[in-house]
Every structure is written in structure tokens, then in C-alpha cells.
Amino acid sequence: MRRVERYAVGLVRLSVGHRGLVCLLWLAVLLAGGAAAAANLGRLDQSFTASSQDGSRANAAITQRYGAGAGVAPLVAVVTWPDGTSGRSAGPAARLESGLAAATATGTRTLSYADTGDGAFLSPDGRTTYALVYPRSGKPDLAGLAAVRDATERLRTGLRAALPEARVEVTGVLPLQEDSATSRPSTLLQLAKLACALAAVLLLLRTFRPLLSLLPLALTAVSSVAAFLVVVALAGSMELSFVVVYLIPVTALALSVRRSAALVTAWRTELAHGRDTRLAPLRAGSVLAVPATAGALAGAAALAALALFPAPFLRSIGIAGAAVCLTTTLACLTLGPALLSWAPDRPRERRTGGRSGRAVRQLTFPAKRFTAPIELPRAPRLFAAIALAALVLLTGAAGFLTAGNPRAEALVRGGPARDGLDQLIAAGFPAGVLNPLEVLTPSGVDPAGVASRAARVPGVVTAVAPGAAAWRREGTALVAVVPSGEPMTGPGRRAMTDVRSALAGTGARTGGSGMPELDLVQGVYGLVPLALAAMALLGFAVVARLRSAGAAVRAVVCGLVSALAVNGLLVLVWQYGPGARLFGGVAATGAVTGWIPLVAGALAFLDALDRAVTGARSRVRPGLGLVTALPLLAIGLGPQVELALLVTGLGGAVLLNTVLLRALSALPARSRPYVRERSAQPVTGALPAIPASSYWSRPRSPLGHTIPLAEPSDHAQ
């Protein structure tokens, strides 16, 4: 046994011997640490942008000088005049201008036909016009989104009061997302959410029994809080993204459920064979210590590789993933055995052939050693073939991923913002007006010349250099560029790139709400192949050191396939839309929100690596994966598209790993890449029979025994 594994077993022994102190320490972490972590979440970057790239830096400069626009998409007020009234007339234009002034706060920037005279702001028949409104929202964080929400209601109410004869609607990217978040799911979808929640509870109770079902939940809570404490502490000295708020609890739940199942399995085995109830938690924790430690070290090393990259998104995911992997394992090795030492000793759990014996066999985790071909029935082979073919399809689909905000028409089915979008599209305006670009021209550069250059770029509807005071400040000026395509579309992305190229050399800086997505693709996603290689290399090195080269190859391959397959799942379900309606969406999104594939891929890689290292193959019940995935579906199923995208990725990562490992274990032995591993022997069988005092300290309880050289045969099943 290696030194780190001996330390892990010694930690289990120490925790069982001082169970009261261990429980109090973790309770303090949960309460005090939870309060401290919640109070310091503001340290995390809430903009969800690639802040180190050109577009994000331009947005930051615009926000600093003008306090509005840039990374926050503008509101779009759509006005349709009654029959016989043309927006080109001086009267309607003046009334629209005065209405906008009355319906917006001081310092709000507006742009419309009234103050530009640009025909691009009018429909072909002249009856419908739109205005771009940039409220003073500040940074694109939670406070900024709240400011936009208030400005939306004020603009809608004020314009309708000022223009009672016209049809007035207010739309935009953020109003559409807000309506999506507040929309109620259909009755059928609500029943599906309820069914997912009930199924998760029943699976948890069926797997762990009523009292012990609280164990994985307690471990998830304390390990999540501990990981958050690590992240917010580091956020004081480096930039970390808010995406870790979604990664940490889901990863903690997935790992806690699996480690709790292994711990409870070993504990029930001890009780089923009539072992000393005081020693059962210690022996069960010793069974878990070695594989859990190996999985934690491998996962933490692989995710820590992301912290070496300059992109804040990757660095945040790497630090959070490594932290939650270590804290979850620490909680399982200390708090888990300590809590089990207080669990009641039920007589039925002492009977070897009883119901608990079946549960033990179904949940057993250690890896088997395959030395000869095994003739499998046709069903498992058929399952393996179908599962592997599906994984190949999903892995290939990942190559078609388009990272970016979903299409506007896919965000919400109905509501005031959707009415405004439909009114805008029906009048003949392109959807690209929802995401205009903003160009910051420095002092000494002619804004009109910059606008003229941008207007000549293919895919640009118009470019305007307003002369109002709100668009000129400290010697600089802003130029608004309206593209025809949305940022996630090919024409929209090409227009953003071409505008930036056309203005190169002028000193102008191009920003806008769509630019961070372009920077995310060009900057962060350009590093993804190198990041995957670094994760695979470090993961391979650790697993090869703790297990064997064959085990390392299998673990790394499973992690890479899983990370790609979960992104392919997002592509097939949401980007191209076959399953969008099934999950509560409206239509194909056309793109997947840029940061979601990164988080889902990291979880998939970590979970697959941990499963492979700990030997969780054919003996793992599918219910363990469902215990993690079903609560996510119960929360995320519904009309809020970005939340549904997130839970599809996170839940799909866990389920795909279950399918992947079971498919590999169902293959014939001669086709499986199984090798003779050092971990194939019973885990605690490798522990030396030495006094307990050599493991850090001797507990003050009747646990001063030696750990035997041989474990019960059930541990090797």
C-alpha cells in the first residue's frame, strides 16, 4: 500500500475514533462556512464573458465611460403606427422622440429614426419603426440585469402612455430571457418534473434505505460548502467565473452518491457476516479509502491542469473541479464512517442471505479480474453495440457545436417580449437588430468615417455615429453598427469579424453584446484541444502511478469520450432541435450557450475518470446515475432555455458515463481493454496488520485492533 493510501486509511481510523469531534467540525464548516461563502460570492465574475479578450475589454471601456450598453444588449422598442400614419412624417417622429425621453431615465442612450433620419430604422411601408434603448445598467452582472428589468417595464409603460394610438411593444435579448424565466411550464411538463423528483427520491430510498438516504445528501452539502470556501478564498487574488456555482454542487452530488454507495455496501457486508458493529464503520471506510483516494487524486490532477491556462473560464472550472473532488472525498472518508458508527444495527442486516445481501452484491464496486473469454448472452452484447454506436454518434456530433447565445425566437414561446419580436420580424426587420455592435472611437478619430467604413461591411444593415451628448464623452464617441444576422449565425459571426477587421488600424475598439461570444469561441475554445490533452496527460500520469498503464489508458479514453459525447448530446437535442420541445423548449436554439459545454464537459471527464479509476463498471446500478440526473431534470425542465440546456448537459454527463462503463463491461473479455491491475485485489487485503497507533493516533474507543490481511469474500465480488 502506498503512503497516501495508508494516510487515507489512517484518516478513517482517526475519524471513527473521534466521531463526535469530526461531526462538530463538519457542522461548523456547513453553517459558518456556508454563511461565509454566500457572503463572498460577489467576488466571482458574474459577467459570463471571456474577460481577457478584445471584445470584453472594449465593453469594459465603454461601460466605464458611458455606464450603459456594451456587454448588455439594448432594449428594442417596436412601434407600429395606425393605418394612414407614416413614421417618416415629422409629427410621429417627434412624438416618438419625446416619448422615449419621457420613458427613460437620465443618461439613457437612445437611437431611432427620429434622431438619425436613417431609413434602416423604418419598415418598407413606413408604419413600423424601432428604437435602440441603452439603459444605465453598468456591468453585465446580476445587478445590471435587475436594472435592465426595471428599465424594460418603465419603457413599455411610458411609451404606451405617450403613444396611445400606436401599437407599442418592448423586446430584446434580456426581456426575452426574463419572460422565459417567468413562464409557467405546461401541465404535461409539470407532471414530468414531479415524476422526476419522485423517482429520484424513490431511487435514493431504495438504494440506501430511509435513514441512510440522508448520508449522500449530508456529504454533498458539506463538501460543496468546503469547495466554495476554497474558490471564494482564491477569488480574492485571481479572476474566477460564476460558472463554478453550477459545477460544484452537481459534481459533489455525483461523487457523494457513488462513494456513499460503496461505503454503505461495505458496512452492510460487515453486518451481514456478523462482524463487530463497532468495527464495521472502520472496516467499511478502509474498503472505500484506497479507490476513493485514487479517484480523487486522478480527478483533481486532471482538472487542475485547466488552472494553468490563462482563460478565466478554464481556470475557474479547473480550480473548482479539483477542489470539489478533494473535499468530497475528504468528507466521505471522515464524516461518512463517523455517521455510520451511530447508525442502528438492524438484525436483518446480519443475515447473509437476506435482502441486504442482495443489495450488497448489486452495489459492489471493486473491479473484477478477467482472465478468460466469457460467453455472454445476446442481450448484453446487443446493448453494448447499441450503446457504443450511440456514443460514437454523439462524439461525432460534438464537432458541429456552435457556441453562443440561443436564437431569439427559441428563447420563449409567448409573452410581451415575444410579441415585440414577432412584431419586429413581421415588419421585415432582421433579428440582428437585437444585438448591435458598439464601436468606441478614440479622441482624434472621425466617428462618421468609422461609421462609413463599418456600413460597407457585408452583413451590416446600417452604421450610425450619433451626435447627441449621450454618445460623446471625454473626447471619445460611440458608433452603433446594426448587423443583419444574430451573433450565433454564420452571417452574424462573419459580420462581427469583418467589422473588427475593417476598423483595424483606426484605433477604434469594437464591442457589443455579441462580441464576448465571438471571443469565447476564438479565445477559450481555441484552447480546448490543448486543455483536453493536458487533462488526459496528468490524469494518465496519476492513474498509471496508482494503478497501471492499462487502467490509465482506459480511464483517460473514457473521460475524453464522455466529454465529447455530452457536447454532442447538447448539439442533437438543443442546437438542431429534435428534443428541444421534449425538454420544454420552443424550437432549435441554433447554438449552445458558450460556457455550458465547458462545464458539462469538465463534469463528464471528471465523473468518467473517477468511475474508471474506482472500478465502477458492470456492478454499478443505473439508479446511482439517475439519483444525480433526475433532480436536475426536475429543476431544469421548462421554458427557461438556458437552464434547460445546463441541466441537460450536467445530467447527461452522469447518465452517459453510466452507459459508457456498462457498455464496456458488456463486451466480450477478449475485446475489453482490461489488464491485470494492482487494484484488482480486495482493497483492505493490502493493508498491513500493524497496530492502530501507527496510523496517526489510537482512538479513545474499543477500536484498537489491527486490520486483518484478508477481507470477507463479498468485498471482492
In DSSP terms (H or I, runs of 4 or more residues), the helix count works out at 23
Low-pLDDT runs of 5+ residues are 347-379, 616-620, 669-717
Helix share bin? 55-70%
Portion in strands: 5-15%
What number is the mean pLDDT? 82
Structural class: alpha+beta
Globular, elongated, flat, extended or rod-shaped: what is the shape?
elongated
**How many angstroms does the end-to-end distance come to?**
21 Å
Largest sheet: 5 strands, antiparallel
The value of Rg in angstroms is: 29 Å
By DSSP, the count of extended strands is 9
Oligomer: single chain
In short:
The protein has helices at residues 3-17, 19-39, 54-66, 90-103, 113-116, 142-162, 173-182, 187-212, 214-235, 244-272, 280-304, 312-340, 355-363, 378-397, 416-426, 447-455, 490-502, 515-524, 528-546, 549-575, 596-614, 622-636, 641-666, and strands spanning 75-80, 109-111, 128-134, 167-171, 437-441, 460-464, 472-473, 476-483, 509-512.
What does this structure look like?
Strands 5, 6, 7, 8 and 9 form a 5-stranded antiparallel beta sheet that branches. A hairpin with a 2-residue loop joins strand 7 (472-473) and strand 8. The relative contact order is 0.14. It contains 23 helices and 9 strands. It has helices at residues 3-17, 19-39, 54-66, 90-103, 113-116, 142-162, 173-182, 187-212, 214-235, 244-272, 280-304, 312-340, 355-363, 378-397, 416-426, 447-455, 490-502, 515-524, 528-546, 549-575, 596-614, 622-636, 641-666; strands at residues 75-80, 109-111, 128-134, 167-171, 437-441, 460-464, 472-473, 476-483, 509-512. With 717 residues, the chain is of the alpha+beta class.
